[in-house]
Amino acid sequence: MIFTDYYNSPIGGITMASEGEGLCGLWFDGQKYFASTVKGETEDKSLPVFEKTKKWLDIYFSGEEPDFTPKLSLNGSKFRKAVWDILLTIPYGSVMTYGEIARIMAKQSGIAKMSAQAVGGAVGHNPVSIIVPCHRVVGTNGNLTGYAGGIDKKISLLKNEKTDISKMFVLKKN
Predict the structure, then answer these.
(1) Is residue 67 part of a domain?
(2) In the UniProt entry, which residues are flagged as the active site (predicted)?
């Protein structure tokens, strides 16, 4: 059984999902791959992890950096989980390129090169938006490309973190 709850953010509704202990999903309503990791029946229920997530989101949307992370329960391939672990290291207010993540992944895997496109696929399928900060990933030269929640939300999240996006531009819209 997967449990769900909801949060109304300043930039749109958010659905949260949990197997009971950890957060396994957090999506903007209607985003690409919405609830893609939720299989089977769901039930709306208030859980401690949802209350902690709402507190995290309240702090985040107030323009502050939360000093805690709700318990996460990320489901995905070994490759995707490794990419998501790297996302969790991107500092608040900063960005990293798909290519930089690919280089880190290659080094961790002991190989010469890793595909930035493969990394992009893993970033795009991140099931816990915002908290696992896939919005902090940009294309070459800071191009604002790709975000399952939509480029407008990516820009809003980066601005919320006071990220300097003045030299970034939208490469393609989702």
Answers:
(1) no
(2) 134 (nucleophile)
Structure tokens at 163: 């990220």
Please state, in angstroms and as integers, the Cα–Cα distance from residue 112 to each residue in 102, 107, 117, 135, following that order.
Answer: 10, 7, 16, 27
60-85 pLDDT, tens digit each: 999 999 999 999 999 999 999 999 99
Residues 6+ apart with CB under 8 A from 19: 1, 2, 3, 73
pLDDT, one tens digit per residue, over 117-173 is 999 999 999 999 999 999 999 998 878 887 888 889 999 999 999 998 887 766 544
Residue 134 is among the residues annotated as catalytic for this protein? yes
Provide the domain count of the chain. Answer: 2
Cα angle for residues 28, 34, 37 (degrees, 5° grid): 125
Which of 134, 137, 158, 168 is flagged as catalytic? 134
Does some domain include residue 168?
A: no
